[in-house]
Amino acid sequence: MMEAEQAEVAKGFLEWIFSELDPSFRPHRIDINMGCPSKCTTSRGQVLKGGQHKRSGAGSSLLRSPDYVETVTRAVHEGIGENNCCLSVKMRLGFDNDLLFERNLLAAAQYADFVQIHGRTKADGYSKPARWERIQEAKELLQNSNCRVVGNGDITSGEQARELVDKTGVDGIMIGRAAVSNPFIFKDIRHAYGDGNSEHRSPRDNYLLFIDTYFQNLKRLHPKHKGKPSFERMLRSKLKQIIANGFLTNVEVVPPKLVKSMTDLLTTSEYCSDRIYESIRTAIEECCV
């Protein structure tokens, strides 16, 4: 994550990494994030009076100008040099709209080994359906280049992963928010592609396995503190974090009844960790199939 003004600094830093660091510490891949829509990232480029930008901003702010995209991607590419390191660029369709999408894409594809395209603009956030047709257009536009295309957006099951590949012809897929509330989605995708060693489970079973594994791993942390008030507070905090960050930030993926149950549970303060855990399991069993 960087601003266009930091491109030369990034280039110099990468040159230092590949010339000075022990090979075992050198990265095999550098990913430039031009897709992050969060305000704390994009607001780095503050707008001055008269509409001029003080700086380019980071994340999806770079998509306001193909020049920003090219400046950053070229600098990182030059910083990597001839070293065995893959360069990828994660991007959205645009900032306020998708009018610059093709120009931004071509600017990045000059230097990147592959681009990861999320089918929404920054302004869309996550409120609108991902536009897979634009991902297909990107694949067609780059079909004669050395830059591969990875599709992202609204992939919540193995079946949808196959559908995206079939519709767009992309070289790969990327999973984001869906993996937070269902980390078993990768097994579902392997199952959808005929991996006989990948067990297929229902969403209900996946959620239950997820919360069981998560809670048991939490309880194994710092065993010498088990039973102390601070340990109990940590367990409660971590369980509520997974409710907020795993279930309630993925309302397009999580069943509506489960979202409501998790919302109610998040506002409850008097439960101990064991009861929160059991309440999560009950909600999953009652709201999922």
Automatic annotation (TrEMBL):
SUPFAM superfamilies: FMN-linked oxidoreductases. CDD domains: DUS_like_FMN (cd02801). Signal peptide: none annotated. Its EC number is 1.3.1.89. It is an enzyme of class 1 (oxidoreductase). It catalyses: 5,6-dihydrouridine(47) in tRNA + NADP(+) = uridine(47) in tRNA + NADPH + H(+); 5,6-dihydrouridine(47) in tRNA + NAD(+) = uridine(47) in tRNA + NADH + H(+); a 5,6-dihydrouridine in mRNA + NAD(+) = a uridine in mRNA + NADH + H(+); a 5,6-dihydrouridine in mRNA + NADP(+) = a uridine in mRNA + NADPH + H(+). Belongs to the Dus family. Dus3 subfamily. This is tRNA-dihydrouridine(47) synthase [NAD(P)(+)].
